[in-house]
Structures are given as C-alpha cells and as structure tokens.
Amino acid sequence: MSKISRRAFTGIAAASAATLAFPSISLGAVPKVVVIGGGAGGATAARYIAKDSGGAVHVTLVEASKRYYTCFFSNIYLGGFRNYGSIGHNYYGLAVNQGVNVVHEWAVSVNAATKRVKLGSGNTISYDKLVVSPGIDLKYDSISGYSAAVQDQMPHAWKSGTQVQLLRNQVMNMKEGGTFVMVPPPNPYRCPPGPYERVSMIAHQFTQSNPTAKIVILDPKPKFSKQGLFEAGWQKHYPGMIEWISSEDHGGLKNVNASTMEFETDLDTFKADAACVVPAQKAGAIAMAAGVNNGDWCPIVPASMQSQADENIYVLGDASVAKSMPKSGFSANSQAKVAANHIRGALTGSKVFDARYSNTCWSLIAPDDDVKVGASYVAGAEAIDVESKFISQADDSSETRAANYQESIDWYNGITADMFS
Amino acid sequence: MKILLFVIFFLTSFSKFAFSDEHSDEQQIIAMGDIEYGEYLGAECAACHLQTGVSEGIPVINGIDAEVFVALMLAYRSKLMENPVMQMIAGRLDDEQIGSLALYFSKLDPPK
Description:
The complex is a heterodimer of chains A (about 425) and B (about 110).
Chain A: H1 3-19, E1 32-36, H2 42-53, E2 58-62, E3 67-69, H3 74-78, E4 88-90, H4 92-96, E5 101-103, E6 107-111, E7 116-119, E8 124-126, E9 129-132, E10 136-139, H5 162-172, E11 179-183, H6 194-209, E12 214-218, H7 227-237, E13 242-245, H8 247-250, E14 253-257, E15 262-265, E16 269-271, E17 274-277, E18 280-283, H9 285-289, E19 298-299, E20 313-315, E21 320-321, H10 329-348, E22 356-366, E23 369-379, E24 384-391, H11 398-420
Parallel strand pairs in A: 1-2, 1-9, 2-5, 9-20, 11-12, 11-17, 12-13, 19-21
Antiparallel strand pairs in A: 3-4, 6-7, 7-8, 10-18, 14-15, 15-16, 22-23, 23-24
Chain B: H1 2-18, H2 25-31, H3 35-45, H4 66-77, H5 84-91, H6 95-107
C-alpha cells in the first residue's frame, strides 16, 4: 500500500475513533477485526494487525479504560521504586499512529452466529475475526469469607488500578511491628512469581518504614515459582521478616474475616494488621459470554491461538489455556503476534508463518537483586510445548542480578512501546 | 559496551579470516534470508528491544549492520556471549532465520 493511501486511511480511522463511529458506515469490503481487551494481548494484536496490513484490515479495539495501568511492574511500585503514573498508558498511539479505531466501552456480549459484538451503550460492531483478550476475573467465593464487598479491607490488587494503590497505602500505614498476611492464589493464575515478588517488595518497603514488621504467607500450594531463589533472597535481605507456610503445614485456609482481620487455618488463626488476599481466577467474563470457554478457561489451537470452539474467534493471554506457557504479559504479547499473523493471512492472503512463542518473567527481590525465568515454546498438536528454558542461578554474581533489573526496565519500556506506540 | 564492540569486531574479523571463500560466513547466512520472514520473526525481538530512542541495557537494533547482527546471533547461539534470554532466543534460530532477521533489522531506519 502506498504511503499516501496509508495516510488517507489513518485519517479516516482517526476521525472515526474521535466520533466513536462504527465501521459499518462506509468502509466497503475492507475486512473487519474486533479486539476485545486493551492489555498485553489485545493491544499488541490490534497494533500488529493494523500496522502490518497497512490499512487492508480495519481494526477496532474495545477497551473500557482510557488509561491502562500494567499489572507487570505494579509490584515495583509497591516496593517504592516507581510512581504509579509511570505504569499508566493511553491508546493515542494505536489510534493516531496505527489507525486503530479505539472504542472506550465495555463489550457485553458476542453473537458468534451473526459475528457481532454488543457494547455497553447498546451499539453493536460486526467482525470477520474477533480477538478476545479479557485477562482474568476473580473467583471471590473460592475463599470462605472473602467477597467483592471486603476487597477494600483485604485488597487482592491482582488487576491493576485503584486496588494496587490501596494496597500500597495500607502497607505504608500498617502499625509499627504489625503483621502483614499474604494469601497467594491457587494454580493456575496470572503471573506465577507475582505473589512472591509482591512479598519481596513489601518486605523491602518495611525495611525502610517499618523494620519490625512481619509478613506471613498462607499459601494454598505446597511449592511455588522460583521458590529457591526467592527463599534465598528473603534470607539474605529480610532475615526473620518473612514466614512462608505451605498448604501442607497449615492444612488449608478455612475462613477469612475482614472485620477482625483473622485468617483461620487448621494450624492456627492468624491475625493481620494489613493483608493481600488473591482468590482463584478464571477467564474474563466476555470470554464466557462469547462461549469460547470450557470451564474457567478457554482452550485454543496451539498453532494459531484460535478458539477450539470457533475458528473466527482468537483467545489470547491469561484467558487462554496455553498449558506450559505461564499467564503473563510477555506470553500474551507473544501469542498476539502469532494470532495477528494468522488473522492477517486469513483476511488478506498474506503469508502465514509457523507459530513460535516465548516468555521471560523478571522478579525483583531487593534493590539490584533481580531473578528471571524464561522459555521458548512451539505449537504441538495438542498444546503449546516448551522448547528450551532457563532460570537464574543461586550463585549468580551481584553484577548479574543488578543487570537483570536494568534489563527488566528496558523490557518494560520495550513491551509497552510494542503494545501502545 | 567497549567490550561488546571488541567481541563483535573479533568475531567478524575471525570468521572472515577463517573462511577462505570470498563470501564470509555472515554473508552466506544473510544471502539465505527472506525479509518478510524476518519481519515476522522480528516481532519477537520487539517485545524487549525498543524501536526508537535510547536504551541503557537492551540495545536498539533497528538499522544494525547485517553482518554484525549475524555475528552476534551466532555468538549467542554458541553461548560465546552471555545472557540467558538471548542464548534462548538465538538457540532456536537456524541460519535462514538469522539471515532473515539480519536483512529485516538492517533495512530499518536507526533511531535518530
């Protein structure tokens, strides 16, 4: 496509974004993609389809928030290393640079038979291909005594936004020498090392502002991601502050009481002065409304990220069943590129290349002590399979750990540009 | 950074010296490349490598010299250069894929 016609297209799309008009107006036979969810999966998919098709595909991104705060790096904020504004992003780049029609509304339902998405305003948008990338919803009732009504007393802070700021506030204002209780979620969940990086960052904050504070982790699991690295780091940087209690030792969380801040287990009843409670998770509601789920999550075709239930719907990121690939922003970004290539091929006849996926998760344990784990993946017949993997070593030099942290900052800048620019 | 440049210089010089064929190893690998394939494969790189501006650690690779790119990827693939992420990424690239990426990134405008 020539530069002039590309520019002309961008003008049309920018105008339609500004007026919230819909593609049904006059775009003729240009194939239409609707992307639901503007996070690491959806924003990346919208950007790559629009960018690489050069106007040959009309892309509408449906995302309720005008400003998107990344979940990744929210722990770095909790540790006091960044301000919250620094992890917020807008969608101007996608609209202006890439010609994506950005619609700030909720998608409330999908009619797969007529290929239409219904929005909160009552308007509908038709699609040729639909990308569903809604992230997670929380299963509040997976913990007895926990509910949306008490999430401000015991923030989950597992979706970015005001919950994360609330948690930071409660950490900063916890009484001197008090006890912080962390309840990580059961598998599978968004960001496997996340709860343990969160504990590390809160511990770091306590060393600065409340050094006699204690942290108790009541884990519903008997083991966790990067466990050896985290435990060695906790011993080194926060001796005596953090106690991790395995499900095998506490016998299961029986009940939480938000008014008394008590956590009842077989082992004991723990009293908290502040807490973070992360319940079990499931795919975002619109995935259920679209009928592409099987139980809590959405099975996909490993070679394309297409839903196993509907070849015109692709499911990305946390909501999908990517098996060995963790639910992470990096994974969602990687999956989005495979889906974008596949969608563009289906709609314009462009070349479709073999699926390849990768992921890396960095976790900050203490200032300049950052560990990472990563893997590359291929599409197997039944699942996305690990091809090769690596993990930080217990005997890494302090220079390596510090370089990992700098690398994670560069990655943050890279992936957010890859999503939003 | 100086050490990195020296390593690149060493690798490119050495491989040019080692192969008496008039085309270096790097040039042969670049000749196998397909730029459209490189664009697809390069999306994986864009998850970490900024396309514009400056970066303190992870370098911007737009506009990189194709032979330097190939030499670097071969060094990561053979684990001569350290960094577990890059060793993993390069470890699964065959020569055609490295050549495709070299073609793609060398043709992009370097950051201003």
